[in-house]
From TrEMBL:
Pathway: Protein modification; protein ubiquitination. This is RING-type E3 ubiquitin transferase. GO terms for cellular component: mitochondrial outer membrane. The chain crosses the membrane at residues 12-29, 239-260. It is found in: Mitochondrion outer membrane. InterPro entries: MDM2_MDM4_MUL1, MUL1-like, Znf_RING, Znf_RING/FYVE/PHD. The gene is MUL1. GO terms for biological process: positive regulation of developmental process; positive regulation of metabolic process; protein ubiquitination; regulation of anatomical structure morphogenesis; regulation of protein stability.
Amino acid sequence: MDSSGKASTAQLVVLATSSALTALFYSIYRSRATTVARLKEAKKVSIDHELKNILSETPGRCVPYAVIEGVVRSVKETLTSQFVDNCKGVIERLTLKEEKMVWNRTTHLWNSTEKVIHQRTNTVPFSLGSHDDDIAVAVRVIRPLDAAELDLETTYENFHPTVQSLSNVIGHFISGERPKGIQETEEMLRLGDSVTGVGELVLDNNLIKIQPPKQGFQYFLTRLDYDALLRKQDNSVRLWRILTVIFGVAACSTLIFILWKRYAHHRQSKRERSMLEEFKEQQKKRMRELNLEESSVSPTSCTVCLSRERSCVFLECGHVCACGSCYDALPEPKKCPICRATIDRVVPLYNS
Ligand SMILES: [Zn+2]
Ligand SMILES: [Zn+2]
């Protein structure tokens, strides 16, 4: 804050950043809260013999947002794990990640970083069936890769370290990058896994399908059960709410601080103006007492005695308003007759 009462650039930057972050976090919080509210209102549907009848009687043969819990069943073919025997599934994701150490020039430390260099996801059509094997009803899952929270099970992991030779090591110190190796992962959604699906449930030509819901609703496919999914989403809402509150408080306090400084400055300059007016008023009264005309007083004459020339500077305020004798006659503690600031030092003026 400078003496003009205006906010400094740093304060404006803090105010702008904290306001922008508050707005951003609030919008994320709002959308997460809406997701949770819709998730709570979603219709719970169980996979049983009645399902087809219920859907055919529903308008549009569709439940716009439904929750189903079932086990993964293959429709025709299945995918087999490339690494584990007798491991069959319907989604298989292979990932190759390069891990390396990168030299940070600021902290002077080697930081570990990783980068996905290859990823491939295979899927085959699958459906969710009842936990009860006797019930043949199944719900076909459409576009499973569009779902949020699609957590696959890691079926295989292997790390292939990079072979290090002496010349390599020297090269790495020069380049600032040291490869550690390649992490190979296989993840799968296996047959028989329990899955919760939340989406649009439709009866389409005798086939029951769950598919991505309309705009604004989120498609979930997760190995968590419905309650755990709800808890997880609730926790994320809480996190964004806390962040919104923290940054909102920071933005408000900065704004209050800036406004308060402006107000204090305004009050101070108003007080100075009124003191100056008061002083001029007193001076006029004194001139009348001494029977002096305003025009007969030199503009450089001492403002106290109105006769001798002004001959000293008061510090720190810097006013040149009095002669030496009047300064000496000021009562202790000496204060500037114009602005009432305490006089720390007085410097004589020499006119030549
Ligand atoms: Zn004087
Ligand atoms: Zn002064």
